[in-house]
Recover the amino acids of this structure.
């Protein structure tokens, strides 16, 4: 879509935010931190960064996450969630007992950004398995965990839960961990309600996950809580993480991001063939498993996410405005509110 047309559409959306067919827009968007010069650029509309091709996020959604890593930490335990949080737009930094290099699984050398002596404040603290006793049994580390103020969420993967347990953060909470460590967590920390056979447990402000790949599910769940389900879906799509089963965990909090989904019948109203750019066509179907529409263009399937009323968004977070006739039947869509109508065939 022409950039000037898209900017005009965004302005119209903002001015008409009280109308039925509008999406409330925030004025400032930024590129997810990637270490390039585009990190400093601010945008006045959603879309994609022209420099690094990352989907822009609301500036107010930016979170800082401290990843505590110990020598021997499991690679995928932290690398999976790190990929999720980085693409979702959060600033991630690593912390360890010292700033000396550590080895993940004896293979990957990691130099921590900070030690517990000089680490800055964070919105979220995250802990991971793999020799987690080096952290949970280190009084200096536990003291650091307990001294952190204004933490919005605590997050753990695998036996990283033992760090939270030792710090007392899981007392009176329900939690899970790696399947081989469930009995030890239950035996050594009787104040914790340990749950087995769950992918993750969400207590509201404390999220613990099972082992290794389950950390990706827990991280996507946290993104859904913080930025909405569509942001998490975009992240999973970007990662080509096809095995995410939405809400496949024990959710004990009130802010369940999966409860406001539209019915299957609502989505099926939009199914069919549509005109597209350059006199081409595409087919739109409902993906029941993902809970969103799916457009197949040139042999590739692209998710289309519901936002509000008859307004959807694509993988680039750009709006799609579906149109109805007087009989309340979908007749096509526009890529801007005043743009060309692409007809339903």
């Amino acid at each position: 879509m022409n950039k000037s047309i898209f900017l005009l559409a965004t302005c119209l959306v903002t001015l008409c935010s009280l109308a039925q067919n509008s999406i409330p827009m925030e004025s400032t968007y930024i590129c997810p931190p990637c270490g390039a010069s585009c990190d400093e650029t601010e945008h006045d509309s959603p879309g994609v960064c022209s420099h690094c091709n990352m989907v822009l996020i609301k500036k107010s959604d930016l979170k800082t996450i401290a990843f505590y890593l110990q020598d021997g930490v499991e690679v995928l335990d932290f690398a999976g969630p790190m990929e999720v949080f980085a693409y979702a737009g959060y600033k991630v930094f690593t912390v360890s007992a010292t700033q000396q290099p550590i080895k993940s699984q004896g293979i990957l050398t990691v130099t921590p950004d900070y030690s517990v002596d000089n680490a800055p404040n964070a919105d979220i603290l995250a802990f991971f398995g793999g020799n987690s006793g080096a952290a949970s049994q280190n009084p200096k580390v536990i003291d650091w965990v307990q001294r952190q103020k204004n933490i919005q969420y605590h997050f753990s993967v695998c036996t990283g839960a033992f760090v939270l347990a030792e710090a007392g953060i899981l007392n009176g909470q329900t939690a899970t961990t790696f399947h081989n460590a469930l009995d030890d967590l239950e035996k050594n920390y009787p104040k914790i309600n340990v749950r087995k056979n769950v992918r993750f447990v969400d207590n509201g402000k404390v999220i613990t996950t099972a082992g290794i790949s389950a950390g990706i599910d827990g991280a996507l769940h946290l993104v859904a809580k913080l930025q909405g389900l569509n942001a998490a879906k975009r992240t999973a799509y970007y990662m080509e993480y096809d095995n995410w089963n939405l809400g496949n965990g024990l959710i004990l909090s009130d802010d369940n991001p999966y409860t406001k989904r539209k019915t299957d019948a609502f989505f099926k109203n939009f199914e069919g063939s549509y005109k597209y750019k350059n006199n081409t066509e595409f087919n739109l179907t409902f993906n029941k498993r993902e809970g969103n529409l799916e457009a197949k263009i040139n042999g590739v399937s692209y998710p289309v996410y519901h936002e509000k009323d008859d307004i959807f968004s694509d993988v680039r977070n750009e709006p799609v405005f579906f149109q109805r006739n007087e009989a309340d039947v979908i007749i096509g869509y526009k890529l801007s509110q005043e743009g060309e109508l692409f007809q339903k065939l």
User: Anything to note?
Assistant: DSSP finds nine helices and 23 strands in the chain. The longest strand covers residues 300-308. Residues 231 and 249 are 19 Å apart (CA to CA).
